[in-house]
Fold these 3 entries.
Entry 1:
Amino acid sequence: MAGQFSDRYGRIKTMFSAALLFLIGGLIILVSWNFTTMIIGRLITGVGVGIGLAVDPLYISEISPKSKRGSLVTLSEFAINIGILLGFISNFVFSYFDDSFSWRLMLLPGVICPVIMIYLSCFVMCESPRFLMK
């Protein structure tokens, strides 16, 4: 689905849409009042993350010079793993708070920071030459 969407509307719009889905799903999780609502939010978040993870290496490989392509995609994957580590660290820090709201606090840095970065980067990134040629 992400490949077809990015081929039709562009890599930048697809990444922006993925960030929007990620934000909407995260906000639904943050305000969820029961288990079903939380699962719906998690499903929307998962779709956003999946689309972003599919289009990000594609965009990087299309926009980067041939000599730097592998290292830039590798750095992107490395940054994803650093983000996962930071998520575990924030979960550990927030685990000492009250159980009634600590799980909501755990989601805040993991939702807000990536969405802000993706949103801001969409304004400075140009569309990939391959998409423009199509």
Note: The mean pLDDT is 85.
Entry 2:
Amino acid sequence: MYQGVLKLLPNVPLMDILYSEGKVYLLKSKKMYVVDKSKLITETDSVNTSFVKITVGTDSIIMDGTFYQNIDEQRRIPTINSNVTEVPAFRYNMNEISFEWTTPYYTEELQTEYSYKLEGFEKEWSKWEGISFGYTMEALYSNKEYTNLPYGHYTFRVRTKTLTGLIGNELNYEFIILKPWYARVISYFGFALIAFLIIYAIIKAYTRKLVNENIRLEGIVAERTAVVVKQKDELESSIHYASRIQMALLPSEAILSENINKYFVLFKPRDIVSGDFYWMTKKGDRLYIVASDCTGHGVPGAFMSLLGMSFLNEIIEKDRIPRADEILSELRLHVTDSLKQVGDDDEAKDGMDMAILIIDFSTQRIEFSGAYNPCFRVRKLTESEEKNAQDESLELDDGSMTNGKYLLETINASKMPIGISSRMGEKFVFQDWPLEKGISYYLFSDGYVDQFGGPNGRKFMKKNFKRLILNIQDYPMNKQKELLDDNLNKWMENTPQIDDILVMGIKID
């Protein structure tokens, strides 16, 4: 095809046709087409199918007629598939695309059939079907339209089969639908930054208020020196404020007190804020109780606990009533999606361990599921069991232990976290049993059992923790909390606390 000075010619459909030296020259509009008859194929068993139109969005035409390949600055030849080296990408609001294609001038063209699929959206090829769009005097057309495509990488493929069974060339068109602005990584960073700025502004406002209060007190208490008053009040105010922030992040224990009379929560952050958190809520007749241990402690662990509590609220607030294991599975998806975890070796394996206990007062049943964190169930032995009880404080293979009066049973959790792991395809353990009176349940993180102390500076260990739980069963729940706290302080003595500590106990009466 030659253009050059032909651009000066008027725009008419066809000006002249000339045959010379085996070539046909067609002068049409402002272009000249040259057909070399020596290179024409007179007989062929091939089937040539090509796109004739590709439209994106409602009216954005990407291709109309054919694709071209440039020979030089003034000549080009038509091609079946696009020759662009970079895959075209379209905005998310243009996630509608339609394709039109044809197989022109072929015997019994109306009997030609097509099969297609959109890779990245469809797994299987469509059934073979004939012309589905229409025809003109020049060619028959078939089309396929896709609407509301999610963001992703796609390749549209078309296969052709004639009446005689000949398989034509396969067409393909590769394209990308970009993510919407709110699903991009930078948007998540923006949301996190806004949350951080809000928290920072609150902290600054309260700090400014406390500082002003300290200045006022320094004037009232004249006998104290300004330096002593400022140092003392700033320290006390900082500790008090940190405690208020920590408690504001956690749910009120009133949820337990309104539904279960006997309970306790022993919560001892290692730092000002904690990576351990407890959470509870009631929806309908179902009471949800959670004890969780997030990756790390202090500020990093606190951010994970914020995510955990937020996601739990979102999951429970849905219309459906999920089981305990379903909550953990959905929470795992939320965590891996929000942290962009895909299982790469170099990515952070942040997540959380969790135990969830659900009391359904309507069905009178209890559900449990756990990610690493188990649950202890303690009941009093029957008279026959007391007579046959083995050596006191002997731990059995199933994790149970007895002191001759009470039996502690271990309800095991799944050995996988709420986060990315090699067992992502597995379901979390699920157990349920009838709601019985007089039975105590304990949820906890690993902070208590892993705390160093004692005369030899060793860990407290889970076996000793079970013995301690059994030995305090004759006391009410509030007294059990005191005994657990006192025992921990004696064990630690001068040893620093190495992790956040959380123990929750409830008794059904």
Note: The chain has four domains: 1-40, 45-181, 184-244, 250-508.
Entry 3:
Amino acid sequence: MRLDLLGDPVVGCTDNATFYYASLATNITATFPSFTAISLSKSVDGGASFGGARIAVQRPVFVSGFGPTEMLDKEWMAAKRVAGSDHIHITYTHFALTGPPTCPPAFPPSVLSSIEYVRSTDGGATFSSPIVLDQVCGPIAFLQDSHVTVGNGNDVYVAWESYPNGYEPGRQIKLRKSADNGTSFAPPVVVTDVTAVGNGFLVQGAFRDGLDFQGLAVDTTGGRGNGNVYITWQDGRNLNQTDPFGFIGIGGNGGCPVGSPPGPGYCFGDVLFTRSVNGGATWSPPVRVNNDHIDLKVDQMFPAVEVDKDGQVFTVFYDRRRDSRNFLIDTFVAHSGDAGRSWQSRRITEKNFAAIHDQDALVNSLYMGDYLGIAADRLRQCNGVIVSWGDNSLRDANVAFATVSGEEDDNE
């Protein structure tokens, strides 16, 4: 079977030779794709080459008057070696155009969105049937942007963002935990409420930034923070201003309603962090990661989080603090040596850059990426992290990376 691999790539490894690459997939035909899928490719030579992609989960696609009836999107993956066998955990969003009895009748037609989970216990050769972790139905409400990671023992964590009012206010980050290696999951826990950044969908520079939850990590080092669960997200709760030319959402107020009566506004983004010390049951009050002045009207966006071999916590994010007009972007990395209670940061980019989008007319002309990347050494031989980001400093879109340790913070 022919597979065309699409976007949202995620990479994991279980030793210095065995790497896994998960991706969206389909088969492009002369008329329309016949299925939507999540694929997994495996390398046994340290990533120098990969074998053919295998389908982890797929759904048929039919075309209605409103377009394709099903779509799998935004997958995430975690890999862990258990008793000599590689266990692969994959989550994704399943969108389905549907109607009664699954969803009530509506116009436009209601969309059923689900956060689903599949796993392999044989290195990706076979996968389980999907488990639905959360599900909503409606013409506006949806779920998106799940992340999965493994903890100590048989613990598996899945977190995602819920949009009960679409891009309007009311967003939440939720989490479910499995203590039996993904066989079953405990009921969902609300990690935090979220205030959207920008107008709820776009930020200054007119590129999309509607996914607020970006980072999930667990400390498995055996040190003082062993077992801690960490989450980062972007949030606009701390500072906003009215925007008379701003977007007005379906509900009338947009994602950042300000003023009295509420009207469209612009919420300036901060990177926020929370942790759980009891396996995700309860969560600490949010801590602001970026250390610019809280009254500075600039955005911090796209945070990702990771833990290195020494239990140090790192985040990478876009930061506009060096441009008071809130247009030019830098990449910053913040580091915490006390399990997220306090943070120091440093700028990684040598030159800040403007947004470059409208490069992808096929998918979304407002697209400039949805994630930054961060990874620690899974073999625990090196401390620090490797970070990657979309970099436009050469006046076109490129991907850059850097290695960062916790000994280089300059608190710029």
Note: The mean pLDDT is 90.
